[in-house]
Amino acid sequence: MSGDQLHRLFEPLQVGTISLKNRLAFAPCTRQRSNLDGTPNALNVEYYRQRAGIGLLVTEGIYPDDMGKGYLFSPGLCTASHVTGWRAVTDAVHAAGGKIFAQLMHVGRLSDPLMLPDNATPISASAVQPDPTARHYTVNCPRPKRPYPQPRALTIPEIYDVIGHYKRCTQMAVEAGFDGVEVHSASGYLPMQFLSTNTNTRDDDFGGSIERRANFLLSCVDAMSEVRGASYVAVKVSPDWNFHNVFDDDAIGTYSYVAKELSKRKIAYLQVGNYGISWDVFGTLRPLFDGPMMPVAGFTRPKAVASVASGIGDFVGLGQAIMANPDLDRRYQNGWELERPRLEFYYTQGSEGYTDYPVYEQSKREEVVGPDDYTTPR
Ligand SMILES: Cc1cc2nc3c(=O)[nH]c(=O)nc-3n(C[C@H](O)[C@H](O)[C@H](O)COP(=O)(O)O)c2cc1C
């Protein structure tokens, strides 16, 4: 890694209508520390403000409507109180010189009647239950400790309602002061339930061929783009990842089509996760998407530098390293040591393991690792 290549990580990047001050992004990380009604609070404000030196902050997954909620203490963006709560976050980030996108996360079938209005049955593309013998939820994760129930398939008018909720949520994101919104179409959540062949057995406009399985995601993007243009909208995908029990008979075909369609639409950026996939996910999608691409998962300083230097990544997403190092940009730039994330606090309450990670100058430096020796926990 040459100094010149490292320097490129700290060049600005145009994303949609905004300019990022460096090529680092805080990848979306659910932390479940908002109020029970989904309203972000002062602790959330402090957490995001601390990380405003990172070029782009992408929030944790936010539910765009009540049926999209999958975890207790996760934030929402569908009430006036949510808008007010997020406004305090975005104001603090902007005052500290940062930029912030909201990640809209509808969990679809990965919910539970205990968390839904009137104990409703979770919804999905088709009535396909996640494997009830598999333990999909994470340790410490505040959700009912029982198998995911059988979901019900959305009717066509209901699908248009959900698309409308993504649009309404985008309008609320504007009111809340966000710089843009990102559709979470990865990790087995609702848009990926439409994309994947095992969870989408429909034979109407929203299922069957690749084009029709992609129709839900692309319709959401189009509806959301009506609010502030496509440059206000981004997408995250995780091709071929079987997390949460989703499978695709032809993942390369599906995601090649999705990347090309999103490229035509000129969205703000495409976040692509490669979660241990055997084929070259980034190399396959890069030539198909003409816009800023943000690779994510398992990045370290040398890997981030190499990705930007090669042009595969215009900017790079980092999750756990930024959770543990609010000033990761400065630590990378100066070659300073890194803190390790404390996994036991990922989904707990309060400031511990959340807002108490020090900046470099205040670090006790007892259990730090060199910036190029850090490896991400899996
Ligand atoms: C505690 C935790 C919560 C996460 N929550 C989300 C989420 O809400 N949305 C999302 O797209 N990815 C989520 N992810 C995945 C991260 O964005 C990221 O892709 C992953 O941590 C791998 O990147 P890393 O090796 O840099 O940590 C989460 C990861 C962790 C560890």
Describe the overall structure:
The chain is of the alpha/beta class. The protein has a single domain (about 5-360), classed as Aldolase class I (TIM Barrel, Alpha-Beta Barrel). Helix content is about 30%, strand content about 10%. It has helices at about 5-10, 40-50, 80-95, 155-175, 190-195, 210-215, 215-230, 250-265, 280-285, 300-310, 320-325, 330-335; strands spanning about 15, 20, 25, 55-60, 100-105, 125, 150-155, 180-185, 235, 270-275, 295, 315-320. An 8-stranded parallel β-sheet has the order 11-10-9-8-5-4-3-12. Helix 8 links the parallel strand 9 (about 235) and strand 10. Helix 2 packs parallel to helix 3 (about 80-95) and helix 4 runs parallel beside helix 7 (about 215-230). The radius of gyration is 19 Å and the shape is globular. The structure holds flavin mononucleotide. Flavin mononucleotide binds near residues 236 and 319.
